[in-house]
């Protein structure tokens, strides 16, 4: 029996609701595949602020470092939106990513055949979409210095953030992207704003230089404004996309809508050695929190990614993904993916159906 220690970070809003479903799924899969999971729950985000005064308590980071993988739901909410930046839930999440050196964020956007009618785009546009966004996660404008709100000589305030990348930061995410593309359709599109930004010029230069080492991968470049447009116009032209932290944040939400709902998109945040963090692309959805309306499938599919990437248990991961398809085949839908002829159910009912399907 393989034994794995998993840190659970339910966080805020719909976080605890969707985490409960993922844990039920993991418990069921552990019996079926003779795996042993030891769950350790820890505080992050608003929940951590309320309990300890900080969004990422040192104990949480320590617990995560000692585990084999971290399953995170979502953080944030209106209640904490007016706190000073260092005390915001989002700062806790960014601290977790940088504290574990998780520089590579893999965000797959795949349209499931069952959800084609849930997409806001036409069937022929989204049918067959299968994109992997490789987002840089510990650099760029999210972490660049200087940053802050300063007072100018004339006494007005000036907000400052800095978009910066070193060559080594670009190269390491570039390598992850080229290797990811090698395992897929061998097409990599690097997205930047090299027509305006020096940091993007360096990004493009390094991606072009790296391409020599991966002759089997076809590298192309797009400016981010055009990439956003192309994603909605003709998404099937994309296979693997590599981009910086901020552009990847925005493009992955756009890519989510190709699949029907942001409630479907999982992600893996990986570093060179530390435990990976598996989290949905969406946030804490405070508008529907506590109402049993959340779609737990992004969370469940994130757990499947954990089994595949951190535990090397592809069969167990595939089994979870098959259960998701089966539940959708049975017609069960949360509101975000509801379409004609299906049955509207809540978050917990999806959990029941998943456990039955497993
Ligand atoms: P959001 O992703 O939380 O919600 C956007 C919209 O999508 C909302 O209408 C919401 O109801 C819906 N939605 C999201 N997930 C869903 C799900 N699983 N099922 C059904 N509907 C779903 O984005 P937001 O409203 O901009 O942000 C809310 C809070 O979440 C903010 O505090 C933000 O900082 C935080 N946030 C956290 C993460 C994270 O923890 N990784 C990611 C994004 C946003
Ligand atoms: C995400 C979120 C986070 C980000 C926020 C909550 C810090 O939007 O994971 O996509 O911007 O990375
Ligand atoms: Mn985001």
UniProtKB/TrEMBL annotation:
Per the record, the similarity remark reads: Belongs to the isocitrate and isopropylmalate dehydrogenases family. LeuB type 1 subfamily.
- Return the cofactor note field: Binds 1 Mg(2+) or Mn(2+) ion per subunit.
List, alphabetically, the PANTHER family matched.
3-ISOPROPYLMALATE DEHYDROGENASE (PTHR42979)
All copies of the Isopropylmalate dehydrogenase-like domain together span: 5-354
Q: What is this protein called?
A: 3-isopropylmalate dehydrogenase
Q: Which GO terms describe its molecular function?
A: 3-isopropylmalate dehydrogenase activity; magnesium ion binding; NAD binding
DNA-binding among keywords: no
Task: Give a yes or no for keyword Nuclease in this entry.
Answer: no
Which reaction equation describes what this protein catalyses? (2R,3S)-3-isopropylmalate + NAD(+) = 4-methyl-2-oxopentanoate + CO2 + NADH
Q: Where are the transmembrane segments?
A: none
GO aspect biological process, one term: L-leucine biosynthetic process
Q: Where, in this chain's numbering, is substrate bound?
A: 97, 107, 135, 225
**Residues binding NAD(+), per UniProt:** 77-90, 283-295
Please give the pathway this protein is involved in: Amino-acid biosynthesis; L-leucine biosynthesis; L-leucine from 3-methyl-2-oxobutanoate: step 3/4
Role noted for this protein: Catalyzes the oxidation of 3-carboxy-2-hydroxy-4-methylpentanoate (3-isopropylmalate) to 3-carboxy-4-methyl-2-oxopentanoate. The product decarboxylates to 4-methyl-2 oxopentanoate.
Quaternary structure annotation from Swiss-Prot or TrEMBL: Homodimer.
Gene3D superfamilies according to UniProt: Isopropylmalate Dehydrogenase
One CC-aspect GO term: cytosol
- Look up the EC number in the record and give it: 1.1.1.85
Classification via NCBIfam families: leuB
Question: What's the chief localization of this chain?
Answer: cytoplasm
Q: Which residues does this entry assign to the site Important for catalysis?
A: 142, 193
